[in-house]
Known about the structure:
The chain is of the alpha+beta class. It folds into two domains: 9-114; 117-249. Helix content is 52%, strand content 20%. It contains eight helices and seven strands, in the order βββααββαααααββα. It has helices spanning 36-43, 47-54, 86-89, 100-113, 116-141, 145-156, 162-193, 224-249; strands at 9-15, 20-26, 32-35, 64-70, 74-82, 198-204, 210-217. Strands 1-2-3-5-4 form a five-stranded antiparallel β-sheet. Helix 5 (116-141) packs across helix 7. The longest helix has 32 residues, at 162-193. The mean pLDDT is 83.
Amino acid sequence: MEELKPEVRQVMMSLPYFHYEVPVVYLPDGTPYIPVIALCRMLGLHPANHLRRWRKLLLWKCARKLPLRTTGRGTRLVWCLHFGALPLWYTSFHWRHVLPERREQLLQASSELVHVPDQVYYERLAHYRNLRHFLFWFLTTYVDAEVFLSEVMRQWHPFLDEDSAAWLEEIIEQGKTIIHEATTLARRILRAQETIPVVDACKLDHYGDVVSTFSLPLLPIISAEDEEELVDCITMLQEWYHDITFFLHDR
Length: 251
């Protein structure tokens, strides 16, 4: 029995290098998938001749059956490949089966896309470094936040009426809770990064001589769930800061 499929969005897109429009199916989180039948039609391949072998390949781990709207046959479930799997898929069949007019385009696409993993890695590495820098900044900035907020409450309390004092106490306790949750999450993310293998790397000049050495995390991954939770915490902290600033400036 087929599992229930999520709501998806379908658009037409011109595929790079081939100048050929294919349907792209987007999941609710924005992940793009391309129907295999559309890719095969573009290259002149017969899916039935390859599908059984493709389903045994590692690249098929990221394939999914998703609903595709067609003009002649309505909506049906078809195999779709993750957009990022295209470089691997281009090497999964013999090019003699490809339409002659597509082979030069296929060669160009394969040659260009071979650099995609490097680009993705360095983009991820830059993001990892920026986030790690922010986490250290956040932890050092808010290390004494609870003591500071308690001091704010102590200094302001004599100048407030009963209702205002109660409101300030409530919002300060709320701030302490938000900051505690955010700092706990930041420490958890940083501790998780300690398990990432680090490799020594070097940069060579055109003579093959080492010009610099450096260390890199082998696979700097921070889970999307942790990043989303961190963004939520920072958003709540910004809203809280706006509320308490407005209250104090109004007094």
